[in-house]
What we know:
Distance between the termini: 60 Å
Low-confidence stretches: 1-23
Number of helices: 16
Largest sheet: 8 strands, mixed
CATH class of the largest domain: Alpha Beta
Bound molecules: zinc ion
Number of strands: 15
Amino acid sequence: MKLCFFLALLVCSVAALAVAPPKDAGRIWISDVTIISPESLDSIGIGSVLIEDGRIVRVQRGAGVRAPAGVSVISGKGRFLIPGLIDSHVHLASVPGVGPTQLFTQRKALPEMIRQYYEQLPRSYLYFGYTTLVDLAVVDRGVLDNFRRAPLHPDLYDCGPSLPVANGYPMSFAPPDARFQVFPNWILDPEHATGLPAGYDPAKHTPAAAVATVKAEGGICVKTYFERGFGRDRNLPVITPALIAQVRQAAHNDGLPVMMHANSFDAQKFAVDAQVDVIAHGMWNWGEFDGRPELPPEIKSLLDRIVAEKIGYQPTIQVMQGLRANFDPEYLQRPAVRKVLPAKLLAWFQSPQGKWFKKELAGDNPPDAVLRARYDRGPIGQVDQVVAYLAAKNARFLFGTDTPSAPTYGNLPGLNGYLEMQDLQHAGMSLQQILRAATIENARMFHLDPQVGTIEAGKVANLVLLSKSPLESADAYASVVTVFVHGQPIEREILAASH
Ligand SMILES: [Zn+2]
């Protein structure tokens, strides 16, 4: 009896909804816009897009099509519609310009500065059109949970806790007593079982167990590293061919792509031999070939294998540009910096204490111009040549920024993606390659393509309306007018940091 009563109530309320739907709820018609969808770049034209309940339900080609009844119309006249951008390499818990060990102490000393930053973080990504992010190494799940709870935020996926080899990069950067807590999903190399925490369970640190942890925590990818070190941390232990083979097998059994941090010639050679799915950095370190004016044949043949084997490639040029930014007095003066960064953190970056990382990078403290030239001639010039070579062979580029890759204020959320696009164009990628890398290619690699990555009926309505064409200049990615997140239109200025 009671059940019937409730059923009647339910049927009654559903019927009421069907008879009198709230007008315009979730129905949006973007009219007469130039539709630029990466699966059909040969047939770009004017059209209109119908959004219902957060999804694209119709893409109508042709100009002047009449809007269906009962929709909110957003005129796209003279504008360009692209899928929401995907950045498949971010680290949300890391704060630009604030070191990981400092973060702990400064979280106490300057809590408001850090709090404002995290609060603005999701909006800064949306401000530059990023509606989907992949965090590659979860070190503080609380930050990700808060991000997902923010009223306006991009869709966020992650690779769960990453898989460093015990005492290798990047856990080597944390103090020995803390590193096993910060990177609990470390893998054990039985040949080098020294310096390990007392009482650890070896069964929890096999490649299969570590991949299972990622899967259990909802990860969509597996991140590991090949890095012998730099700066003060050199000759670090690295993953072996046998271990990476086990990682790969376990990950592929679970349908997860394997991503490898590798930015040197020998690391990328290791990654290709290991048949990883994604190389998560460009090759700015040419190892024995460093300083050569042109790509040597040994590197070219490795890049040929990356192309032939369709390995996903994230150039992440902003890693190096973000270090160089410390020596560019104009970087913090860019108007866009104020849009993505709240006042307190910006003020701190402009103070002498906020420039601690510059001092650390500068070493013997030569003039800024000398240091900028070193980056341009060295790692940036080298990664640019690698990108140009891969672009000419139409490699499988994926768009990722590695924001922030170091405690540098030169890697700010959202803005860093825009700058990466400029870098990619400068290095020699075509505008079509850049758009595809940041949409359909990222979506396919991470198996998100049923949801996002193109403007097609059935997909989530994550879209960006631009006032300039991204197929004419990478500058267009700064001309965001409206960002749609699950169909909700957000005017750009609402997303800017307040000052
Ligand atoms: Zn990274």
